[in-house]
């Protein structure tokens, strides 16, 4: 054990937590306390060695005085006064010297400590985020559910830091993935022979709900429905949501002319209704279709029986709040291919989003050149395809992992799970449900709700940042791995994130990588901000999702499958299996934990053809979307 008052004094049993590879010193002071080490003592206690000497000196004086009989007290008192008088200058000098050293130490700490923190991660803006994290986390109190596993993960990262990292972490494990190639943009012989439909049955309006990714699905479903009903599609509208609070419309996110041109041989698409139909009261005419009129994932037969007669009679049908209202099976191969063509080829982000998206990707990679087909498809010509004159291509790009951490308050509250925050967390989430999810609470009153423990066992609980960090550590990603974090505000803030950022401090968001002026045009438009996350996740070297039900994760993983060429691995942890593994957190050994995590992820990466009823946007490996060579 170090000397009392020493700045580096730690208990021996906590040495495995000292993974301070450039990480802030004050973070690890708080870690010492959390993991049962000595309480933090700040910086040096002035006179650490002097205090020890003073104790010895005092004891020496007591021992010496004990040698004298009580009758000699006067003599002893005079002798002590004589000793103090003789050494007073030395004592004063020593005290002044220690005071000077203390002030010098404080001055040097204030000068060099921020620089040390900033050098911990050289990417723009990251230091600021980490500096702010410590006092806020200390104030709120970090929530940790798996301290023992975190302890072992930290020790493993320390041991692994100077070892060669396995290249397999950054590669698709199965070579069969590279045999699938994109081909949904190829017009089928049937369409070429038939040409564009001439006898139009009417016009389809859609108002899509949700955020960016739900709207994307709705648009491509509407394209397939327009083709099915031989109708003309009007450029979709996006509904304003009190949750998303984004007034963005189709043309603010996607290139309208490109969208229309890409699909012109198969679907009639116009920007507005003809003037003679604009004044039609669609609701009064009975042509306003809501979710109540259509089944979820409705079949083509349902559209033909319910929607086509309305279309023929009124010439217009308006799908209000349209989303996932077209099933994946049974559906003709041609309509499936059209869905894929829409999603993977026709929907291109506007140049303003592409430009900032390219800045985002180039800054995290520290590399200015397009590296893959994914770059080309998402960023177009706004990322160079040849080296710039001043750029040394030999330096190579920095690899990064994109993590979509779906742990916002809406997701957490809706899950009905518990996350270690006690009564405060329960009260806060219940209040949120009462305001935002009253229908959920009404449904729960009519049935016996499952307990939080049962929900977790069933894999119904979103992964916490702590759990995400343990999965990455179990897979073998090193402490210095660059991680791009996608998503909105994490529930619990910096306190909840502390476990993850301690294991992986090189974690950044778009707010860290882009300047305020670069982000300003997108500030009040959540869908446009989500488009930046979509780009950064899809073009990453590895993409890790924490919730397979998330639309962003589903669409990004599908995009990487379609354009990745077998070189864009995606990590898909099973929440149910992970829950079973973590239920043994008090007894499981680290090597056993690593083996189970790797097996779980490996099984999610196997190359499989789309199964019946599975989303074609997420699983494009099928004859309708991709060609196998």
Automatic annotation (TrEMBL):
<dbReference type="InterPro" id="IPR024709">
    <property type="entry name" value="FucosylTrfase_pln"/>
</dbReference>
<keyword id="KW-0119">Carbohydrate metabolism</keyword>
<keyword id="KW-0472">Membrane</keyword>
<comment type="similarity">
    <text>Belongs to the glycosyltransferase GT106 family.</text>
</comment>
<dbReference type="Pfam" id="PF10250">
    <property type="entry name" value="O-FucT"/>
</dbReference>
<dbReference type="InterPro" id="IPR019378">
    <property type="entry name" value="GDP-Fuc_O-FucTrfase"/>
</dbReference>
<comment type="pathway">
    <text>Glycan metabolism.</text>
</comment>
<protein>
    <recommendedName>
        <fullName>O-fucosyltransferase family protein</fullName>
    </recommendedName>
</protein>
<keyword id="KW-0812">Transmembrane</keyword>
<feature type="transmembrane region" description="Helical">
    <location>
        <begin position="88"/>
        <end position="112"/>
    </location>
</feature>
<keyword id="KW-1133">Transmembrane helix</keyword>
<keyword id="KW-0294">Fucose metabolism</keyword>
<dbReference type="InterPro" id="IPR052272">
    <property type="entry name" value="GT106_glycosyltransferase"/>
</dbReference>
<keyword id="KW-0325">Glycoprotein</keyword>
<keyword id="KW-0808">Transferase</keyword>
<keyword id="KW-0328">Glycosyltransferase</keyword>
């Amino acid at each position: 054990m170090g000397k009392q008052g020493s700045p580096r004094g730690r208990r021996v049993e906590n040495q495995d937590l000292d993974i301070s590879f450039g990480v802030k010193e004050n973070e690890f002071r708080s870690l010492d306390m959390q993991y049962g080490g000595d309480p933090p003592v700040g910086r040096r206690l002035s006179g650490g060695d002097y205090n020890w000497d003073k104790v010895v000196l005092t004891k020496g004086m007591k021992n010496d005085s004990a040698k004298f009989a009580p009758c000699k007290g006067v003599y002893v008192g005079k002798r002590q006064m004589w000793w103090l008088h003789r050494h007073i200058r030395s004592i004063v000098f020593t005290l002044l010297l220690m005071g000077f050293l203390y002030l010098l130490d404080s001055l040097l700490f204030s000068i060099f400590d921020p620089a040390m923190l900033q050098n911990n991660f050289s990417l723009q803006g990251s230091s600021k985020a980490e500096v702010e994290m410590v006092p806020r986390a200390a104030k709120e109190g970090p929530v940790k559910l798996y301290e023992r596993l975190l302890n072992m993960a930290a020790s493993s990262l320390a041991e692994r830091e100077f070892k060669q990292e396995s290249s397999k972490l950054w590669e698709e494990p199965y070579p069969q993935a590279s045999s699938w190639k994109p081909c949904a943009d190829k017009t089928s012989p049937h369409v070429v022979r038939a040409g564009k439909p001439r006898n139009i049955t009417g016009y389809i309006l859609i108002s899509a709900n949700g955020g960016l990714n739900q709207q994307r699905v709705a648009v491509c479903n509407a394209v397939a429905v327009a083709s099915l009903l031989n109708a003309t599609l009007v450029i979709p509208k996006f509904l304003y949501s009190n949750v998303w609070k984004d007034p963005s419309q189709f043309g603010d996110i996607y290139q309208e002319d490109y969208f229309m041109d890409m699909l012109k041989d198969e679907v009639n698409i116009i920007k507005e209704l003809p003037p003679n139909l604009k004044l039609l009261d669609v609701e009064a005419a009975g042509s306003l279709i809501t979710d109540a009129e259509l089944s979820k994932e409705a079949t083509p037969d349902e559209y033909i029986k319910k929607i086509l007669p309305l279309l023929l009679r009124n010439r217009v049908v308006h799908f209000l709040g349209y989303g996932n209202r077209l099933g994946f099976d049974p559906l003709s191969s041609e309509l499936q291919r059209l869905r894929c063509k829409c999603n993977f080829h026709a929907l291109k982000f506007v140049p303003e989003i592409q430009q900032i998206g390219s800045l985002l990707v180039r800054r995290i990679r520290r590399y200015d050149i397009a590296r893959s087909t994914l770059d080309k498809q998402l960023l177009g010509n706004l990322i160079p395809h040849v080296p710039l004159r001043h750029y040394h291509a030999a330096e190579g790009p920095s690899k990064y992992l994109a993590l979509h951490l779906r742990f916002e308050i809406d997701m957490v509250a809706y899950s009905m799970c518990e996350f270690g925050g006690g009564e405060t967390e329960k009260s806060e989430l219940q209040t949120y449900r009462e305001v935002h999810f009253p229908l959920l609470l009404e449904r729960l009153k009519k049935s016996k709700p499952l307990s939080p423990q049962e929900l977790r066992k069933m894999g119904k609980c979103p992964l916490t940042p702590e759990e995400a960090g343990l999965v990455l550590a179990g897979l073998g990603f090193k402490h210095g791995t660059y991680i791009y974090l996608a998503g909105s505000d994490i529930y619990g803030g910096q306190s909840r994130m502390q476990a993850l950022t301690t294991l992986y401090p090189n974690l950044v968001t778009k707010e860290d990588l882009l300047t305020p002026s670069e982000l300003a045009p997108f500030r009040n438009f959540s869908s446009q901000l989500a488009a930046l996350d979509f780009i950064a996740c899809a073009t990453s070297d590895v993409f890790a999702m924490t919730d397979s039900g998330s639309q962003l994760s589903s669409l990004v993983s599908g995009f990487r499958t379609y354009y990745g060429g077998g070189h864009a691995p995606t990590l898909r942890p099973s929440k149910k299996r992970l829950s079973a593994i973590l239920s043994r957190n008090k007894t499981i050994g680290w090597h056993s934990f690593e083996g189970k995590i790797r097996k779980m992820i490996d099984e999610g990466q196997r190359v499989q053809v789309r199964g019946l009823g599975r989303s074609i946007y997420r699983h494009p490996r099928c004859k309708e979307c991709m060609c196998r060579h």
